[in-house]
Amino acid sequence: MAGGVCEGSYHNLLNPRTCRCSPAIRQSALRNLDLFRGANATTCADLEFLLRSRSLTEGEEVSFPTGDDGLLGILVGGALKIQRWLTWDQYVVVEVLGPGEIFFLGHSPVIQVGLRGYPDVVQSLTTSCVLTMNLGELWPILTRDPVLAPRLLSMFVRRLTELRDHFGRFLVFPAEHRLAHLLLELRRKGRPKADAPGLIPFNLTRKDLAAMCGLALETASRVLSRWEKAGWIRSGRGWVEVLQTAPLEKLSALEVV
Amino acid sequence: MAGGVCEGSYHNLLNPRTCRCSPAIRQSALRNLDLFRGANATTCADLEFLLRSRSLTEGEEVSFPTGDDGLLGILVGGALKIQRWLTWDQYVVVEVLGPGEIFFLGHSPVIQVGLRGYPDVVQSLTTSCVLTMNLGELWPILTRDPVLAPRLLSMFVRRLTELRDHFGRFLVFPAEHRLAHLLLELRRKGRPKADAPGLIPFNLTRKDLAAMCGLALETASRVLSRWEKAGWIRSGRGWVEVLQTAPLEKLSALEVV
DNA sequence: CGGGCTATTGAGGATTATCAACTGGTGTGG
DNA sequence: CCACACCAGTTGATAATCCTCAATAGCCCG
User: Is the CB of A221 under 7 A from strand D?
Assistant: First the structure.
């Protein structure tokens, strides 16, 4: 269905064979994270010691030793999705994480949330590199360095605001608005590929897209087909490329007073 | 439509004339908040000095001096809703806050979220008492007391998890599930009234209920009427009383694997 | 007592989910 | 290396949920 570019090449573009997590790369990645910018040297050293790095292939889940009292995860490269299963065959993607973003996982006493139903599942959308550490070891560091707590809080406030935005839009607006908003958001999430600037740099099936904005797979497919005919996007098995943002922005715009 | 109890009395029950925020009450309220439990004496003294108390009547908005660089709010008593306007006449209630919960408001550098569309509006659902302080003054206190940062973070994680739960359910499930889930959640939010244990202790119009779970006012009304005929709830202008939780729990249950 | 707001109820229509059949690409196993 | 199974995606027909519009009743306040 797609014209110029071979689909296989897109798949390879999105999923490099390995994630080179050499100690040096890992160190520099750590220091470049928004979360730790301006942190003092002791903090960085502590974190380098505590954080375990790990690379995930496409579709892999982030799991952790069950004895742990919860996990702090930092996404260095790639993309993750946070899924919630609602029935045995139906899930919703509640969030997509880009590089630099963090997540909590597990049943720490601090995260003692009354989880009804299923717990969240964190799964990679593409070849990714994550750093993880035991949550219990975070608190002492947090009090030692005055930069970290405000940083963490502000990340959470941003996440909460973003989720609220989606919540409102996806609850009220029709399918076209939802998908348009979603595509534009996703395009902003990851680092764009040099040779395909409009390509959303994750592996995304129609089912994923539908699960992100509460639509049936078929509805999402229909809408995307329509847009593809109009020349606004291109898409294939597991990838979507945005060619024209203007019409999508118009579809997902909120009226201004 | 409601049977035994006069509706006027419910309204008075939900909206006591005044919120008695004497210095003594305010002090004890402060020390009893989950957020500050176990905090050291200096912290409590600082906070008592910094926090301004304020009482809100039904439907009032929380506003703040525009010169401020953002606001931390703590809800001591009553209930607040966080609204987001999507069009000039349509809003969504993204969250309902109960006693002890916190909110951020304004344009602090920490809250510099790319807000497209309208900003959030915090509005009281009932006669409420809130404490507010300048966000900029929070950070130094945060680093001085090792208890606060984990506490704040855990509150945010809980809020995020709760919002994700709603997100998933309201995106996927039909109206009856949504409303059932909502009513049960709301019942848990506030302190129950002694003489009406099932009464949701907020002022809630049909429009609010609908805006909380992404339905049209009429749909919400229809579903509630049906439940009222079945004897599961009672309702009137601005209040809902849950009489039987079992059927609602069944409607909003997630299948377990 | 009248105006405005909240809630109820009905009819009609549009969006979207569901079910089903089909295509083509991918990867696996013989 | 080929055949096969499987998965992602497409498309159509049908049905159901839910929204919109509209008219009306009851409560609250001035």
Answer: yes
Q: The tokens of A181 are what?
A: 């908003």
pLDDT at B19 over 60: no
Non-local CB neighbours of B28 within 8 Å, separated by 6+ positions: none
Q: Looking at residue B198, what is its pLDDT?
A: 87
Report the distance separating Cα A218 and Cα A230, nearest Å. 18
- CB-CB under 8 Å, B154 with A112: yes
Beta strand A239-242 with A80-87: parallel, antiparallel or unpaired?
unpaired
N residues, chain B: 257
Q: Give Cα A4 to chain centroid, integer Å.
A: 28
DSSP summary character for residue B88 = T
Q: How far is B220 from chain A (nearest CA, A)?
A: 14
The alpha carbon of residue B24 is apart from the nearest alpha carbon of chain A, in Å, by: 30
Q: Cα–Cα distances in Å, from B179 out to A26, B118, B190, B205? A: 47, 26, 17, 13
Closest CA to B201 of B3, B11, B1: B11
Which positions ≥6 away from B72 have C-beta within 8 Å? B102, B103, B104, B132, B133, B134, B135, B138
Helix (H) or strand (E) holding A153: helix A148-172
**Protein B253 CA to nucleic acid C17 C1', in Å?**
21
pLDDT digits (tens, 9 = 90+) for A125-168: 988 888 888 888 888 888 788 888 888 888 888 889 889 999 99
Interchain pair B92, A255: CB under 8 A: no
| pLDDT of A28 strictly over 90 | no
In chain A, the percentage of residues whose pLDDT exceeds 90 is: 36
Q: Which residue of A has its CA nearest to B95?
A: A164
CA of residue A57 to C1' of nucleotide C26, angstroms: 18
Across the interface, which of B86, B116, B156 has its CB nearest the CB of A156?
A: B156
Render B209-237 in DSSP notation, one character per residue: HHHHHT--HHHHHHHHHHHHHHTSEEEET
If DSSP codes are grouped into helix, strand and coil, which group holds residue B33? coil
